[in-house]
Design a protein that fits this description.
Blueprint lengths: L1 H27 L6 H27 L1
Length: 62
């Protein structure tokens, strides 16, 4: 049990580093600072989030 919790904490910390690095790389790309790119990115993120939540809750209810 302790090993699983340690792995989950490491996974959370690693995901923070991945998120921060991805954010920084996207900020360096001039095309991602345009309004249209941000809107497309937001819409894509919302769609992927809704799909993932739907999938998780669908599997949980079965």
């Amino acid at each position: 049990m302790k090993r699983k919790i340690t792995a989950e904490i490491i996974l959370i910390l690693a995901s923070v580093l991945i998120f921060r690095s991805t954010w920084t790389l996207l900020d360096m790309n001039p095309i991602m600072n345009e309004q249209n790119s941000l809107i497309i990115s937001l819409i894509f993120g919302v769609i992927v989030t809704i799909w993932a939540l739907y999938y998780l809750f669908e599997k949980e209810n079965k």
